[in-house]
Amino acid sequence: MSTSFGGGGYSRTAYGAAGGDDGGGFFGGSQSGSQAAKPVNDESLRPVTVKQIIDAKQAYGNDGFRIDEVDVTQVTFVGMVRNINLQTTNITYKIDDGTGIMEVKQWLDPDKDGEAGGGGASAFALEQYVRVWGRLKSFGNKRHVGAHVIKPVPDFNEVNYHLLEATYVHLFFTKGGLAVGNGGNADAGGEESMFVENNDGAFLKGASAKAKKMYQYLNQSEESNEGVNIHVIARNTGMSVQDVASAAEELLTQGKIYTTLDDETFAVLQGF
Length: 272
Prior knowledge:
With 272 residues, the chain is α+β, with helices and mostly antiparallel strands. The chain is built from six helices and twelve strands. It has helices at 50-55, 157-175, 200-206, 209-220, 230-237, 241-253, and strands at 45-47, 57-58, 65-67, 70-72, 74-86, 90-96, 101-107, 129-139, 142-152, 228-229, 257-259, 265-268. The strands form three sheets. A five-stranded mixed barrel has the order 5-6-7-9-8. A hairpin with a 2-residue loop joins strand 8 (129-139) and strand 9 (142-152). The longest helix is centred in the middle third of the chain and has 19 residues, at 157-175. The chain is elongated and about 80 Å long. It starts with 44 loop residues before the first strand and ends with a strand.
């Protein structure tokens, strides 16, 4: 789990990764004096989706890749094991994260017999979710990830979290950083946010006059948490019961309100 994305150097993982079996990783024991001189992006970890890896541009022949116009070598992603190919020197997995399938090669270390990355047997099963940490590589015009570490995913929430984190980092580099107080780089006029915001403005532009009137009334009503009866809405808005029913049907279809005590009592669905 990355903890910072500022300055183009998206930060180190907070997961307990250790290893560096593919060489060149920043995990424990893998850094050397020569690696310390590399650009910071070369030793930074980027959460990605498989589609981002597939779409990455090769920056310098076979030596580097760029995602969102940023140099990337170290990546992490989460997916399901779809295929396992045991070979003499490595195990090749095909990992599917829902956006694509990527080959992941884990080189075998006979000194780690019985551990992930050691011996000659896979530590994982088909259709098991795993997290991969590794280096993006290309050989013979075919891309793969050389794994430093592969670990099982114990909680499916990690899959959802990773997709959100990869989306956040993508938006950071394509849309800019999130404004913080008055010191952020998004102005008060409404630059695009990094997060999904309430879409009332877009909805109200296309809504009927009756729906707008009912929606605005419910938003301002002190009783809106428990809901307001259709007859009360009609009386306080000056609309007929039939008009309120028509407006309610439109708002329900758009997911802006919901029924509470009965089918004629409505409240605003907050945050949508």
